[in-house]
């Protein structure tokens, strides 16, 4: 009589995908609709935004998000209610907490992975080994903190969690190489975060053209010439505007600042003087430093100083930008996660909204908003409640109480 050997292996029963099984598809959709109407749906599936900027999604979108999780639970043959609490959808990509993938590999596919760590801190690396059921062949992959770590606000990768995060990421990488059907189309929470950060970086781009670019179109018979602009700028003959990259404020160059000082000390001579050239007359500035080459009758010059000829304030100096515009500015910067993107978003905002603030109070308010959002991006300020604080400062500023 022959001896019989029993091999303990997980047995898979073939079931067609819900996408091609109308009965099961209808059941899963009905289940998703009922779950979406309950209190079981986590914020990650029913809201969009972060911190104080979260808003509820339309019900049909919540149902679709829940259905994606329910269908994945059906493929893995596990409870959808257990999976819901660990799921998130970002930019259309379904992701789960790192522990989910490890649990699925073991419970659904009978794969028990082993881990071996080397080094510490940023130099930590890991070796992951495992066997498929019924096989003696060891399957191995290697990884390190430097290769797998994701960064940004909300990233779970911290020195105290490196060992755990290496396990979760290692399980996913092992599965993608040796058992891809297990997690096809599924990402971990840290990978989902990285996708969101990359998306924001792509949206926040520097759209502020240089002065030479703005005048660099096809040259007609008369008018500005791009080469002439460069030549005059580099030679110091024309004082060009510069933009503060932090606030979007239009600043004066050294030539302009010196001219303003000279004007205040010799206004009597300037009043009777003629511009040295057509360019100097247009700009209200002079290029040689001579008192005889200034014009103090320029209305543009008076507006920049915020005074009329009698010494009173002009309308341009007293009229403020709307409070709502500053709140939109604060919200635009709040969506940026890195210092560089805060900078770019600031320049883009003022470019799209008629230019940077001109009045002193408005400039100070814009700088205050920028500085706080930059401090948040650096990690010096907590993002929680920061936007509410900034909006309160804006309301106070327009109530006449200062910043």
Characterization of the model:
This protein has 19 helices and ten strands. It is mainly α and 403 residues long. Helix 5 crosses helix 7, helix 16 packs antiparallel against helix 19 and helix 17 packs antiparallel against helix 18. The protein starts with 21 loop residues before the first helix and ends in a 5-residue tail after the last helix.
The chain-level mean pLDDT equals 72
Shape: flat
State the total count of DSSP E strands. Answer: 10
Q: Please give the order of strands in the largest beta sheet.
A: 3-4-8
Strand content: 5-15%
Structural domain count: 3
Helix content: 40-55%
Tally the helices: what do you get? 19
The computed structural class is mainly alpha
Task: Give a short account of the largest sheet.
Answer: 3 strands, mixed
- How far do the termini sit from each other? 94 Å
Q: Uncertain segments of ≥5 residues (pLDDT<50)? A: 10-14, 194-212, 219-226, 232-243, 246-257, 270-316
Radius of gyration using CA atoms only: 32 Å
Order of helices and strands: HHEEHHEEHEEEHHEHHHEEHHHHHHHHH
């Amino acid at each position: 009589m022959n001896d019989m050997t029993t091999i303990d292996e997980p047995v898979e029963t073939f079931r067609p995908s819900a996408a091609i099984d109308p009965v099961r598809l209808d059941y899963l959709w009905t289940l998703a609709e009922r779950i979406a109407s309950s209190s079981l749906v986590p914020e990650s599936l029913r809201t969009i935004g972060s911190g104080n900027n979260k808003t509820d999604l339309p019900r049909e979108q919540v149902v679709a998000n829940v259905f994606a999780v329910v269908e994945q639970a059906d493929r893995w043959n596990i409870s959808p209610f257990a999976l819901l609490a660990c799921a998130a959808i970002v930019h259309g990509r379904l992701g789960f907490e790192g522990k989910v993938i490890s649990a699925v590999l073991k419970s659904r596919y009978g794969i028990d992975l082993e881990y071996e760590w080397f080094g510490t801190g940023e130099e930590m690396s890991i070796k992951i080994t495992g066997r498929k059921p019924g096989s003696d062949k060891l399957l191995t992959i290697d990884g390190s903190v430097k290769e797998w770590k994701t960064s940004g606000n909300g990233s779970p990768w911290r020195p105290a969690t490196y060992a755990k995060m290496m396990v979760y990421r290692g399980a996913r990488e092992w599965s993608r190489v040796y058992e891809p059907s297990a997690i096809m189309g599924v990402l971990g929470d840290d990978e989902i975060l990285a996708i969101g950060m990359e998306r924001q970086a792509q949206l926040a781009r520097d759209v502020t053209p240089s002065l030479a670019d703005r005048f660099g179109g096809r040259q007609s018979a008369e008018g500005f010439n791009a080469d002439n602009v460069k030549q005059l700028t580099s030679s110091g003959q024309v004082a060009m505007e510069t933009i503060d990259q932090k606030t979007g404020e239009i600043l004066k160059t050294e030539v302009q600042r010196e001219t303003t000082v000279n004007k205040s000390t010799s206004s009597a001579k300037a009043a009777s003087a003629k511009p040295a050239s057509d360019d100097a007359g247009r700009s209200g500035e002079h290029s040689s430093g001579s008192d005889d080459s200034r014009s103090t009758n320029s209305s543009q010059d008076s507006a920049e100083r915020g005074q009329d000829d009698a010494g009173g304030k002009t309308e341009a100096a007293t009229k403020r930008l709307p409070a709502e515009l500053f709140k939109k500015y604060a919200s635009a910067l709040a969506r940026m996660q890195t210092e560089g993107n805060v900078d770019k978003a600031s320049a883009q905002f003022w470019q799209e909204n008629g230019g940077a603030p001109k009045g002193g109070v408005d400039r100070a308010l814009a700088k205050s908003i920028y500085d706080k959002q930059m401090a948040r991006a650096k990690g010096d300020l907590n993002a929680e409640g920061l936007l509410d604080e900034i909006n309160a400062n804006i309301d106070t500023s327009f109530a006449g109480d200062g910043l």
